[in-house]
Amino acid sequence: MTRREAREKAVQALYQIDMRKIDPNEALAAVNQEEMQGDEHEFLKQLVHGAVENQAQIDEAIKKNLRNWTMERLAFVDRAILRIAVYEILYDTSIPSKVSMNEALELAKSFGMEESVKFINAVLANIVKETDQSGEAVQ
After folding, report:
1. Is Transcription given among the entry's keywords (predicted)?
2. How far is CA 136 from CA 66, 82, 92, 128, 139, in A?
3. Are 80 and 48 in contact (CB under 8 A)?
4. In this predicted structure, what is the pLDDT of residue 134?
5. Maximum distance among all alpha carbons in the chain?
6. Which of 6, 17, 82, 137 is deepest in the core (most CB within 10 A)?
7. Environment class of residue 4 by beta-carbon count within 10 Å: exposed (0-12), middle (13-18) or buried (19+)?
8. Which domains occur in the chain, in start order?
9. What is the DSSP string of 45-75?
């Protein structure tokens, strides 16, 4: 299994957490993890738990960059993709922002609606620009 597949599972888990209001561990148990190796499994857990634990700051960064839109109006899957990408951009400095953005766009192509890709790209581009201008990622 690859990191992209781990991100796909993370989207599924965050979707479940958001939609069904379940515990992260229950959501992780619900996504099929049988084929996952150690590193990818750890990466999946890190993404899900990191996005949940830092959700307030992540959502604030997303809200600041929504134009004529609200978090509540976002599709569950778009919200999940954005939360994973913003978690990576703000909290995981081992992953270049461009990689996080590209992976989010691939996820949007797979899971989102047609307009999701452009929308997610615009939001993430603004967050990356903000992060680069401030010269710091949240640690």
Report:
1. yes
2. 21, 19, 12, 10, 9
3. no
4. 55
5. 42
6. 82
7. middle
8. 3-134 (1.10.940.10)
9. HHHHHHHHHTHHHHHHHHHHT-SS--GGGS-
| pLDDT over 90 (residue 1) | no
* pLDDT of residue 67 exceeding 60: yes
Closest Cα to residue 125, out of 47, 67, 48? 67
Please give the structure tokens belonging to residue 24: 């992260």
Integer CA distances (angstroms), 23 to 27, 31, 37, 70, 135, in order: 6, 13, 23, 24, 34
pLDDT digits (tens, 9 = 90+) for 68-106: 889 999 999 999 999 999 999 999 989 999 999 999 999
Task: Please give the structure tokens belonging to residue 28.
Answer: 């992780």
